[in-house]
Design goal:
The protein is mainly alpha-helical and 223 residues long. It contains 11 helices and no strands. The protein is 64% helix and 0% strand. This is Abi family protein.
């Protein structure tokens, strides 16, 4: 068995088939595309991480000021069932580990989907009264909820694809990288500035020697 065939078996035939199709049946080229997908996923980790932390911490700061540090336990405040479930799981995990359920520990255990849900339509009223303070554009201009939630949806999907080692080559990565940096700047100019000093994506993309026009799927298709 060749090295390429062994790697193909390790990755699973179904997962590798996408890259083989993109490479026109050339399995060596398909493995190169897989490596490229890995490098791009790695390069996007930093802006994704900074965005997620900035969103989480801005929401917690604003909500704690308005509703107390344990705002996530306020009756009737969380609108999505999966959010309430996440809080319950976080509290149970901390209890099992014998750790005090400090607000910071609970907040750190909640996922990106929890935080993006906080700017979903169900929170329109809370956005108008409180959450609009989490972000602003240049010159102190406030954003509408939709202006913030619109780019976060594809960013969340892209983040999940990267986390599950899925192909992302068919996405418009330059566009979504730009959105990550822009949204981070709305949430925390300081975090955005720091991210700019360590963000490797601009040096990795566009990749030399690869035609990324070959993948043709929409970047919003969820396989």
């Amino acid at each position: 068995m060749t090295a390429v065939a062994k790697m193909e078996a390790a990755l699973s035939l179904e997962r590798f088939a996408r890259y083989v199709a993109w490479a026109g049946g050339d399995r060596t080229a398909a493995l190169e595309l897989y490596a490229l997908n890995t490098r791009l996923s790695e390069a996007l980790y930093t802006p994704l991480q900074v965005l997620e932390l900035a969103l989480r911490n801005r929401i917690h700061t604003v909500m704690a000021a308005a509703h107390g540090e344990r705002w996530f336990e306020t009756e009737g405040l969380l609108q999505a069932p999966h959010q309430r479930e996440q809080v319950e799981v976080a509290l149970a995990d901390l209890a099992r580990e014998g750790k005090e359920p400090l607000p910071g520990r609970v907040v750190a255990a909640l996922t990106f989907s929890f935080w993006t849900a906080m700017v979903s339509p169900a929170y329109e009223d809370l956005w108008r009264s409180t959450l609009n303070a989490i972000a602003m554009k240049a010159a102190g201009r406030r954003l509408s909820r939709k202006q913030l939630s619109r780019p976060l949806t594809p960013i969340r999907i892209l983040r999940n694809r990267i986390a599950h080692h899925e192909p992302i080559l068919h996405w418009d990565l330059r566009k979504h990288h730009r959105s990550m940096r822009e949204v981070t700047g709305w949430l925390s100019p300081a975090a955005a500035a720091w991210c700019g000093t360590v963000d490797r994506f601009p040096s990795v993309f566009p990749p030399q020697g690869y035609d990324l026009a070959r993948p043709t799927l929409s970047d919003t298709e969820d396989e």
